[in-house]
Design brief:
The complex is a heterodimer of chains A (268) and B (308). Chain A is an all-alpha fold and 268 residues long. Chain A has two domains: 78 residues, no CATH class; 143 residues, MetI-like (MetI-like fold, Orthogonal Bundle), CATH 1.10.3720. Chain A has 14 helices and no strands. In chain A, α4 packs antiparallel against α13 and α11 packs antiparallel against α14. The two termini of chain A are 36 Å apart. Chain B has 308 residues and is an all-alpha fold. Chain B has a single domain, classed as MetI-like (MetI-like fold, Orthogonal Bundle). Helix content of chain B is 73%, strand content 0%. Chain B is globular. The termini of chain B are far apart. The chains are: A mainly alpha (268), B mainly alpha (308).
């Protein structure tokens, strides 16, 4: 009995956390008429119909755009960050401490103060209305470096690197063939985080992209909202589709993911 | 001797090689635009008037912003109001439930995972979901409240300033609870077991352990959460943007009477929507940054004083 009393608040809060998301997924399986009747707690039969509506509205393309830009963003960030992390943890050099501190300072500066400059820069380079600005912005992510530094300090034994070096292994080979296998879990976590951030990013696409063919999911959701003012089933399908990748990421590895999420706040 | 120096030099170049990609991207796409934004903030550049009409105006945008712009202060004030309303709430609930879950063996992962869902849901989608739930005539919230007789008739949640604020606060609580929760859970795992065990041996009750060991130990984490919440609060954009861009919000950025205008929304509105003044917009973004520095410093100072 005491146990139930303890678990009850936890249960209630969890239900509140999940219900809006559940609600949206259920919405995508119902027709608008059913949604307005209000009985949508169990799955309906209109999923395919709703999906057809949003795909005809261009959602498939938005989905692809979001997917490939997010994958490229994550790959770019993971490669650059792990190289920087390697430099800052496995070499002794004069500026090491200073650069590590600089990364922390960069991490504190909000991205918004560079936004207008970035937009003008991209326009000047002829890159507005392309996906490139959405990707290269992840090339220098201070959190990524910070995360890799934290991880690599503990997980890559210096002796292994030293002995490889004595065996005449080149520095690039040491990094790609010896260090990378050691830090695979961290690479996976960072990949998931950046994929998600890029997938959810909104203000950058909103200011740089107005060609419908280049829309990503967040812009697509807004377009969908304006296009189907009366079709709540279709809206639900669009929202559910936008949430899907994160559900998959969670199914793939909630443990490592949460570890990444709390990395800035909790040491160790 | 010469050989040794040579070898040292050779080794020393590699860290810079591996750091180079980061710094190339950083300088080209972050530092340069940041400095460029600052330069723009010293001009009266309006995107519509064109770059040729751009004039250097010195600090006048900033003077205007800090002495004459009631919307700027309103946006800062709104953010602080949101923070004061939701942070204590999620800290208390997040911490208490984290302690409860931490002492449970079963279902730990499930509870953790399910509660993080809101935090990582596409923010744009959250805005739309909440706009749908809190819709005046068709929203489930009004329907439920009326159905159970709690209200006589539905509230125009998104059409009246203070109600809209409540919706934003509920949204913030819903969205960030899971994050606070998992951060505290991760923090609890770092408390050395001997500490609470020793206290228990000395006859401390679980409540005493909580107040005298757990709470002080988690203080740096709490500080981190508060400061990052204020920083992200000032940058809050996606959800309120979508919350009020539908039929029910009247289409005004920041909601009815701009009651939910955040720093980021104001910056966006000035730069890209109601006006296209890049110069003033850039000044707003730097103005927000000044407040972020201010809040962070005050936060650290208060924390330091508490330590002593």
């Amino acid at each position: 009995m005491k146990k139930i009393l303890k678990i009850l608040p936890l249960l209630i809060v969890t239900i509140i956390s999940v219900i809006p998301v559940y609600f949206v997924v259920m919405m995508s399986t119902h027709s608008t008429a059913e949604i307005f009747k209000g009985n949508i707690m169990i799955p309906g039969k209109h999923l395919l119909e709703n999906l057809k509506t949003i795909i005809e509205g261009g959602f498939g393309l938005y989905y692809w755009n979001s997917f490939y830009t997010s994958v490229l963003s994550a790959v770019l960030c993971v490669v650059v960050s792990s190289m920087a992390g390697f430099a800052l943890t496995k070499y002794n050099f004069k500026l090491r401490k200073k650069i590590t501190n600089l990364i922390l300072v960069i991490m504190m500066i909000p991205s918004q103060i560079s936004l207008i400059g970035y937009i003008v820069e991209m326009k000047n380079l002829g890159l507005s209305n392309t996906h490139l600005p959405l990707i290269i912005v992840w090339g220098a992510n201070a959190f990524g470096v910070f995360f890799m530094v934290q991880y690599m300090q503990k997980s890559v034994p210096n002796e292994v690197i030293e002995s490889a070096r004595i065996d005449g292994c080149g520095e690039f080979r040491i990094f790609f063939q010896i260090v990378i296998p050691f830090i695979k879990p961290a690479l996976g976590t960072l990949f998931m985080l950046v994929f998600l951030w890029s997938w959810n990013n909104y203000i950058l696409q909103l200011t740089l992209i107005n060609d419908r063919k280049l829309f990503t999911i967040p812009l697509g959701i807004q377009a969908l909202r304006n296009a189907y003012t009366q079709d709540w089933g279709a809206r639900g399908a669009g929202l559910a589709a936008s949430v899907l990748p994160m559900l998959l990421i969670f199914a793939a590895g909630s443990k490592t993911f949460i570890k990444g999420l709390t990395a800035g706040a909790v040491k160790g | 001797m010469g050989k040794k120096v040579n070898k040292k030099m050779k080794i020393n170049i590699w860290p810079y090689v591996f750091l180079a990609p980061f710094f190339i991207f950083y300088i080209a796409f972050n530092l340069y635009p940041t400095l460029f934004s600052f330069y723009i903030s010293l001009t009266n550049w309006d995107a519509l008037a064109g770059i040729s009409n751009k004039k250097f105006v010195g600090l006048s945008n900033y003077i205007n912003l800090f002495t004459n712009d009631k919307f700027f202060f309103k946006s800062i004030g709104n953010t602080l109001l949101f923070m004061v309303a939701y942070i204590p709430f999620v800290i208390i609930i997040g911490l208490v439930l984290a302690v409860v879950l931490f002492n449970m063996k079963k279902f730990r992962r499930t509870f953790q995972t399910l509660n993080v869902l809101p935090y990582i849901t596409t923010p744009v989608a959250i805005g739309v979901i909440f706009a749908f739930m809190f819709d005046w005539s068709t929203g489930i919230v009004n329907k439920t409240l009326v159905h159970f007789g709690i209200l006589q008739e539905g509230i125009n949640w998104l059409g009246v300033g203070n109600y809209a604020r409540i919706v934003v606060i509920i949204m913030l609580i819903w969205k960030s609870f899971g994050y606070y929760f998992v951060v505290y859970l991760a923090g609890l795992a770092t408390i050395p077991e001997e500490l609470s065990e020793a206290a228990a041996v000395d006859g401390a009750t679980p409540t005493q352990v909580f107040f005298y060991i757990t709470l002080p130990y988690l203080k740096p984490i709490t500080l981190f959460l508060i400061i990052t919440s204020i920083i992200s609060g000032l940058q809050l954009f996606d959800e309120p943007m979508l919350l009020f861009s539908g039929n029910s919000g009247g289409g005004i950025i920041g909601g009815p009477g701009r009651a939910c205008l955040t720093g980021a929304l104001y910056f966006f509105d000035k730069s890209f929507t109601s006006t296209s003044s890049y110069g003033y917009g850039a000044a707003i973004s730097y103005g927000i940054f000044i407040f972020i520095l201010l809040f962070s410093t005050v936060g650290f100072k208060l924390f330091k004083r508490g330590e002593e």
